Amino acid sequence: MAVASASPLPAALSAKPGPARSPPRPAPGFLPLRARRAGAAPRLGPVATWRRFRVEVIKTQREKQQTEAPVEESFPAREAAPLDGADDPMVPSDESWVVKLEQSINIFLTESVIMVLDGVYRDRNYARFFVLETIARVPYFAFISVLHMYETFGWWRRADYIKVHFAESWNEFHHLLIMEELGGNALWIDRFLARFMAFFYYFMTVGMYMLSPRMAYHFSECVERHAYSTYDKFLKLHEEELKRLPAPEAALNYYLNEDLYLFDEFQTARVPCSRRPKIDNLYDVFVNIRDDEAEHCKTMKACQTHGNLRSPHSTQNCLEADTECVIPGNDCEGIVDCVKKSLTK
């Protein structure tokens, strides 16, 4: 996949000193330190500077979304019941300016990492995917670590969050196994870079999650959205080549396993058993990985609304909503019908 990267900056032009040479003009948007000329634009204050930064960030994000493939919704997320307990560290503030600030920081960090990856890997697709998957599973470890700490101190307890985040890390772990089988970790420099970034990313996510879970979930949404776009572009550029290659054994073991409970668990916007992957070749493998990233993105978006996350296998609510809904054993059709009834009520 030919990944677009930022063009290198032109080298500074060297000029010989001369008596008639005029002093260089300041760069556009910046004022000289000396007194301004009459009629010059006033210097921007901190509020105006922040507004300009917000406008530039929003403009960049809109231009990027126009070139990326959209992550479409596949199934409406179920409504969540209110949580018990007044002391809840997961409850974020509702101030809009805080949300905008958090998202602006996340977008800046994501774009910076993407620019580094574009410059380092360019056409080395499998090595890039290895680094992406090593990084992508880190936030879920961080979320579970913080949630375990909250449970230990008795501050907050909700099993659905831990269960879903573990299923997400399990899914990303198998993505990583697939990339290793394809040779993405062949060079030591790639392994070092991936693990070096993952180490600091873990502690950054832990701190971010403790300060603002909403911000941490939004940052993970940005990362997953970029992963979806990267795999989608790769599929469009190499479709015919990938269809001629066999599927890795790690992909067959994960996607065609008889026990797909954890596979259904991380897809919180879908009912269980509503998606069953097909693996005939390497192209199908990357299609499923791309679709997995879309499901991660939707789950991370749902998590930004407090209490909105529910395990797809939590059928107690639908049983209470409809007494006629009976699930015999592990019948997938019964689960699908039950959840559909609960969502339409």
TrEMBL record:
Broad class of where this protein is predominantly found: membrane
Which chemical reaction does it catalyze?
Answer: 2 a ubiquinol + O2 = 2 a ubiquinone + 2 H2O
Q: Does the keyword Transmembrane apply?
A: yes
Q: What class of enzyme is it?
A: oxidoreductase
What cofactor does its activity depend on? Fe cation
The alphabetical list of record keywords is: Electron transport, Iron, Membrane, Metal-binding, Oxidoreductase, Respiratory chain, Transmembrane, Transmembrane helix, Transport
**UniProt similarity note:** Belongs to the alternative oxidase family.
Please give the name of this protein.
Answer: Ubiquinol oxidase
Report the source organism.
Panicum hallii var. hallii
The organism's lineage is: Eukaryota, Viridiplantae, Streptophyta, Embryophyta, Tracheophyta
